[in-house]
Write the structure tokens for this entry.
Amino acid sequence: MEAPEDGEEDEREALKRHLRAERQKRKKRLLEQSSIQKSRDADDVKDVTSIQQYSADEGPSEKADDSVVLSKSRTGSQKGLTSRTQHTHHLDDFVKRRLEEKLKAARSKGESLQDKEASLEFPSRLHSLRDRDTVTRFDREADADRAGRRDSPPPLSTRVRFREAARQVGKGLPTAEEAFNFFTLNFDPDPPDVIETSSRRRQKQRKTTDEDEEHEDVDEDIQEENETQSEEAPLVQTQEDLFVIDQSPQDFLEIRKAEYVGYQKLLQLQSELLFTPSFRTVPTSIKLPENMKPRYLEDEGLYVGERPPVSLTNENILENRILKMEEGKKWFGDDGRIIALPNPIKESSTRPPLFHMEEALDPALQTVYRKAVKSKYANLYIAGAADPEGDYQLDVDVSGLIFSHHPLFSREHILGARLAQLYDQYLTRQRNNLTGHLTDKLNGLRNALRNMLESHSGLNPTQALQQRISEYNLEVRNTRHLRDSEQEKDRTLLKNIVKVWKEIKALREFQKFTNTPYKLYLRRENVDRVSDEQDYEDEILAEVVELEAETEEEYQNKLAEYKKRLEEWKLCRKKQKAKKKKQKKKKKGQAQDDTEGEDEEQDVSESEGPTDEPPPKPEPPERPDLGSIEQWVREKALRIRRKPGEAILIPELSASANITASELCPRAEKARREDVARRSLFTKILYNDKEVSRTDSRSLNTDFRVHFGQIFNLKIVNCPQSISLQVFEEIGSSCSLLAQVFLPVPEPSVVTGSVPLEEFEFSSNQRVMFDHEGVGSDVPLSFEADGSNKQSLLTSGKVSCCVSWGIGDDDVPLAPPISQQPGGVHSGKGHLDAVSYIGASGLYDMKKIGEWAKQSRLDPNDPKNASIMQLLKVASSGEVTAPEYFRLEHLQEEFNFVTDEELEKSGRFRLLKLRNQEVAEFRNYKFIPALEREVTDTVFQEYEKRLKEGEVIDTKEHLDSHRALVAKYLQKIRESVINRFLLAKHHYLLSDLVTEEEIPTIGILGINLFKLTEPKRPLKPQRKERKKVTAQNLSDGDIKLLVNIIRAYDIPVRRLQSNKPGQTSHSALQGSIGLPDQIQVRPFVEVSFQRTVLQTATADGPNPCWNEELQLPFSAPNGDYSTASLQSVKDEVFINIFDEVVHETVMNDKNRGKSIQTHIEKRWLGSVKIPFSTIYSQSKIDGTFKVNTPAVLLGYSKEKSHFTNSGFDILRSLSEGTFITLFITVDPQLVPGESVREKFDTQEDERLLQASERFERDAAQRYPDRPCITTVIDLSGKTVFITRYIRPLSPPKELLDEFPNNPLEATPLVARFVSLIPSLPDQVSFSATCDLWSTCDQFLTLLAGDEEEHAVLLCNYFLSLGKKAWLIIGTAIPEGPTAYVLTLEQNLYLIWNPSSGQFYGQYDTFCPLQAVGCLVNADNVWFNIQQYTSPMRVSFDITKANLWKPFFSRTFSHPGLSSIQPEELVYRRTDRAAAAELQDRIERILKEKIMEWRPRQPTRWNRYCTTTLKQFLPKLELIRGQDVAEGHRHELQSLLGDYRISGFPLNLVFSEIRPIIEAVYSTGIHSVQASNVEFALAVYVHPYPNNVMSVWIYLASLVLT
Amino acid sequence: GNLCHGFVSFLSSFTLVYRCKADIIFVVFQFPEYDNLYCKYCFVYGHDWAPTTGLEEGITQIASKSSQASHRLIWNFPLGTTFKSTNPSGWPQLVVSVYGPDVFGNDVVRGYGATHIPFTPGQHTKTIPMFVPEPTWRLQKFTGWLTGRRPEYTDPKVVAQGEGREVTRVHSQGFVSVSFLIMTKDMKKMDYETGPSGPANKPSATSG
């Protein structure tokens, strides 16, 4: 009792404070001030100004105060508040008011501060709680006061202490609120103080005056409570009692013996009082009801949560204790354990992490001071609202409401409501008179048609006329149908009305009382029977005639169609017959021997056969029965129309019936009526979802109509967002919300007085049931005797009300101007947005559209609205048809920015799209312009050109139409492969993202330990692995190519001029005069890459040692450093060896005497070229390479090494040539692209695939550095077993024909042929690391492939030549993992490099093959399990199982895999004419290029020399560039005696012109600076079968001596 | 001709200029033994962005724990960068990775984190949660601890993107607070509205 009272007081206090704060704010408003003052000063002020009735509820009106609906309602509510409290706490208020007045002086000082406090977050709930706390305590103290103890501490100090404590609890600085309280405490006593004092006073008053009994009771209650309940109070009281006892003199005097209770007795006593539960486990049987076995839910498969952990001892104690209690067993579950909820502790915190380090609280949780802001509606205030005069007023007129169904309806009410509804419908229909309208139209149409026919009766109807007639006919038919349906509806409506009325009558009869005042009269209007019958017959006749005409027409149409189809069918049948005959003949021939029975069967089957196939014979249409038409028309007329001569029935509904008085009704009905009488209704008016006022509560009438008739004038400052009414029903003191009705915000032009009341429907789905006559709501009920046809009705009804803008004194509407209302939604009915009003889903709901159209008051004369008005006419006629289609996302277009076409047109969008698709041209496109207009078409030109002209052959680039086609084909394959890999590229592995130390094995640990003992600076340092860098975060200039040129061997030496026949050259003589034996050659190395050229210092001698590092910058194409882009870099590193020749010319100048001019000339000796892609994928290249030296090097001779003659002739020249030792790497080390990890579809057997996977895995585990391949991917992206590629294939016949007798001689030629097919690494062509193997025919068609294809082809050729040949899968320099070919010739193993056509003996030191991984032939794959991989140390005897591990063995035998290679290769003949043409073109292009490279000097061509050189070239091809006869040089020398000549032939594989130009450029022949230099250039193209070309270019520079 | 055109459109479309001054304030780690940390930062941005002034990446000084009880390390390291752009796609992100010595003095990564640079002008404080990749195996965790070579991202910039992250497992490590001062220019001209819908610009919005 105490707490609520205090709470109420407190609340009231807070409220008051709040009100006061508000009042202070508005003090300046004179108007309001007076009224407030009034309400404040006098209790019994009656607010007369307002016509409204205000509720007396405290909370909501407080809310209304908060809202911006002002003055009147506010004052009203306050009055309500005071009037209510007045009764109960009259004295309280009086006291408080006095106190307030007293405190006013003090308060006024801190008023401004207080305002601030009020504007702060309302003195926080915590605060008020605290206050309440103190209040109770003070009250208690006050009680103590009364009891005579006057030592209560000053309340203020308590407060301070309390605050102090609170501050200690909270961390850090005092909050603003605390600080404020601290400083304002002295002059701003808080409400608790007031209450405290007031209560004290109250007590005083109670003692003196005994006037308010109620109050006294309260106080007594408090006292009682304190005595009984408070924890301290009893103690204190007993103390007092004791004290009283102590004060008696006997106690002072009496002396007693000290009482002693023996220990045993004490125990005994204790054992009576105390219970010590045992620790022992309670047997389950005790815990369970008798004769019950424990049941374990968990074992039964039910989910049982984890029990919270409790120690066993505790659990036992608890169980023992519980068992002692009464009904203790109910605490135990079926399993005999204490019932426990699952462990509520979650493993992880469900709260957001709060990482507070001392005062560093999460900023989101920190209290922040914010300045007071206006509410979010601030900007929605109507302009001018600050001015009190400019208030706007909304008048809400709530007239009343009618229930169309109410739970308290009796059955009769339901019927009555239905009757009323039907009658309403009837009236509306009558008003519209659609039937009459349509009948008139029909008559008019008929007349017109008749007229037309009559006027043209004699004439032949023209086309136009016929058209019109048929149109009229159609129209007549449609109108008739419409009229018929309308008539039918009229008829059924009338019937229904009569039926319902009859039901009512029957019900009244049955229940013997009347509940509703409805009474239906049916007025008869007699008609002239004769004319009526005439009309009726006429109508029927006309209709019959029309229908006959229609059916006739239809019949004709059908007949025509039938004829057509019959023709078709006949034709078809004829064909069938002809066919059948043929078949019959055949069959007869076959079945002559057969029995007759079979023949019959055949006949049957044949007769059946054709009927299946041709269309069935069309049925002729039946002639319509014209007689039945009239019958049908008459039936219809009878059904839908009044009988002729029958009186017209006009129903009239009146409410004149007498309602049976309650006394005469049965009990149930009486109860219902009483219930009705108990109910009353009221409505709340909500403005912007805040209650602003409510109507009076009106009792429900027996006819379920409630009349309010109240008008509410809402003065508003906020823009109207929503206005709604809430209908409440009150039964006694409880009230429940029935329904909510939303009212539209009126248009500014809608002002009070000009608008009629409107009805708004509402309904509620609450379920209500009664035990009396009331039918309830949402309860199924039936009117049929057998209880069928159940229906459940929901409470529903209509509110009639209207909303309009008020009119001011000077007839000015108090509505805001339209322009100030933001958004279409709030702008009133005229601008009601259809979508927002109806809602997206309602767009195809006719009813809603109709409603909307009605609401928005469309202008019917506006042609824009014509279609809607039309629609409305249909909709309002009661005919609501939902469309028969369903549209998904019918608003999709609303959300599109622009149409798709426009989007496609947008260049910027296209650019973004293409970049996103990673189209090559746009992959790295930077800065897509921000504006559409800045995207010009030129951006797309190249791309579009590629798309369009991909078809057109670029002859200039390719010089050869076949190759152009091939390039196109390759492009297509590339695209398809790229598309396949695009997805795979986005699959990541952990190793792609995270670098992690591998788990050290024992071996590695051991090595690491061993490394500790290594010297810090070893004498022979080895290259260490560097950290790899992912490619993407690089930019231009970051990557450098490091080329370390170490040394070279066997560089050709200058032929001493003295050896030359003929006269000696002057300058050369001079150069060689000094030390002819020492200066043999002065070589240096020039490295060119991406047109950057660097060179080493010049060394001396044929075996120079440079040991120099060159750094060449690298830039990726388009600045794209992604892996894919780097892989497709086609650039090559050219390493050229030049000889530096110094010529000294002695100049004889007369004035100065002799001077020597030095010319430095460089002469190309040979080159090595390494593709960048190789360096990239290998990351380093280290080794000794054979230098590509020209077959003839004019002016140089090779230093002959000494050979020991071995058995095989060819081997002699193997080690011949120049070699260079190189180390090339990329700095920083780039991560080469990973191979694509994707499982490809395959046609191989699953078992084989598994075996191969196992084989490869084992190999990789045991020998990680030995390549092992068992399956490869073919061009279509399928996995294929490798042995399928090997199959003997015969080389072109021309090659074999050259050496008809000696197949051994043909071998190098075949190898040369293979090597002449251009090489193209897969990663370059497919821009992804994937090894695609094409078959030999694909390879020869594409004329491009990497080492594997070359090797496969060569191997197949060798096999067809009868050699023993294998494919070697191994690693070589510089290619890295590659494929070579191994042949066995005369007990010697030869290793063939398929790309160069070179072959090496097994023990050749300079063999580029470094490691042998496995051998492959058509039958098997052998993996090298020997100790060494170097070919020199490997035994190639595959029969030894301890050296070579076969894939197919006895356990897993060869399943007989067929080869995927074609049986035979088809070669195209050599086209000599094309070769000649190509030759000319290459020559022309090269000449142009050389001249272009020499822009400063004139380039002269020595024709004589050129022709001479041209003759040499075919010879060179014939001997395949080997071992040129010395005679050639001599010949040349003799021919060009006067020239100092230096030159060489180049032999190139032909693929494109670009590499040829590059090769010529890299020789530097054009850079000869001498003024009198002449050039000679000869080109020879030797054609091989299948368009394989060998290109020879002879370059020479001549200087006249 | 093509190249020249590209240049022209380049200039005219450089309208969206965006200036960011960030300040890596402090880091909070759950483990008190983390000390002497330094922080590497870099910006990750899309194709249509380019820094005009300021450094794209950098490294802070080494900061030690304060002597007070808090576990904070304070760098107060200013970084100022200006970007220009033609397209909000690929909005710059700040990627922060914190390194420091472990018990044996090896430099190990203590956390990666990334945040989008706020796009509203004004001051913002962002707290970036940090995390490190987890070793695949327990043993690796041990050896990594022993050798001082813990798993690291191949490229710290991967924390600014989502692709491929599903294969990693990470472990939270603490937070880095970064305060940003953002200025934008010509955003509105390009019809990009980033500013708060404060009362200042409201009247124009409502009247329009």
Chain B touches chain A through 52 residues (CB under 8 Å). The first helix of chain B runs from residue 2 to 12. DSSP finds three helices and ten strands in chain B. The longest strand of chain B covers residues 170-185.
